[in-house]
Amino acid sequence: MCWKSLLNLLKRLRRNTSKNDAISAKINVAKAAQESDSSLSDSTQNSVEKIITETTTKPQIQKALVVARKGEYEVRDDFPVPSVAGGEIMIRCDFAGLNPIDWKSVDYNFCIVAFPWVTGREMSGTIEKVGSDITDFKSGDKVWTSTYYRDVRAGCFQQYVVVPSHTVSHIPMGMTMASAACLGVPALTAAMTLWKWLDIPLPSGPQRLAETSDDEWLLVWGGSTITGQFATQFASLSGLKVITVNSQSTKALSEKLGAAHVVVRDGKTDLELVEEIRLVTSGNITRAMDLVSSNTAAVALQSVSQERPVHFAPLAFMSPSQVIPDNVTAHTVEMKQYVLNSANRCYADELNKIMSEGKIMLPDIVQIEGGLEAVPVGLDMLKRGNMGGKKLVVKIY
Description:
The protein is an alpha/beta fold and 397 residues long. The protein has three domains: 3-57, no CATH class; 61-182 and 362-395, Medium-chain alcohol dehydrogenases, catalytic domain (Quinone Oxidoreductase, Chain A, domain 1); 187-337, 3-Layer(aba) Sandwich (Rossmann fold). It has 13 helices and 15 strands. The strands form three sheets. Strands 3, 4, 5, 6, 7, 14 and 15 form a seven-stranded mixed β-sheet that branches. Strands 10-9-8-11-12-13 form a six-stranded parallel β-sheet, sandwiched between helices. A two-stranded antiparallel sheet has the order 1-2. Helix 4 crosses helix 13 (375-384). The model is unreliable at 14-23 (pLDDT under 50). It comes from Cylindrodendrum hubeiense. Residues 71-394 form the Enoyl reductase (ER) domain. InterPro entries: ADH-like_N, ER, GroES-like_sf, NAD(P)-bd_dom_sf, Trans-enoyl_RdTase-like. Belongs to the zinc-containing alcohol dehydrogenase family. GO terms for molecular function: oxidoreductase activity, acting on NAD(P)H.
């Protein structure tokens, strides 16, 4: 092959870096040819070296599901693979968990920093690369993570994700990769809401609530949601009695998870629901979380204790005009704090400990095949509802 033809070939390859193996082979040919041909002119030598340098240093590309425009997804094959800093970890996304925030942020155009953008808040995967400062993880480790929407490198709907090392945890022993994809949002949200914001002691702490209080209840409005399922179990481990609000079809699920009482909402007015909750708990609900809507948040507030101090977490939404009783502290749960403050790693560690001990029943997993192209299909399923307490995850890799 003449050098002019080789140069043209390298230029074409440089514009098509998705064929990495072919590029590597041709670069090696070019390097060998350079080494064997001392008669190469200086200008040609410089041209070949420049093309080889540009080709080998050009960022690799990957497949990603991007929000290309308002409300519109596209699967792209030429999205850049993120770079990795010293305290960061690159993970190959094997399974991505789907959550309501994923479709809501796209439909209502929030938490989208720019276009194109990559969303997705939780995943399980295999470590591809670790930064120079990392000593407790290595390539090949199986891990899970929870991510922050403002960093496009951390969006889970792409093949390779880069996140701060403190947000990465090894998958607990005995847990499948698919099941681990539900730890980063619902499990961690339930854990941090209870242990950080609602002032419930860690299950492994020195004292359970039952040992220090006479009769305290946690209200979980939306007991069959994945977050509600985890919250019911975590609170029970800490010694709290749990009362949930469910549909008739998921009543048995919450009872199986340890709820002391399940209020079936079907066919009942708000007043009837409040009366039943207060009757069962004798007005002793001191913690409450709503996982449904602003309307149910308002009803939940009517159901809690009217005398004792109450911690309330409106996780779905609460109207800005909602009146908060004087004895109630309404907490703004910001899961981004897990990413922004490395001290919050303790909650993931506690979560992993509980999971490793086999104390928690995991939600039923509905696994969707098809890679990134299947994510919008799964999100549409989630949007339509009626999941019956099942968790959707997509097999990406």
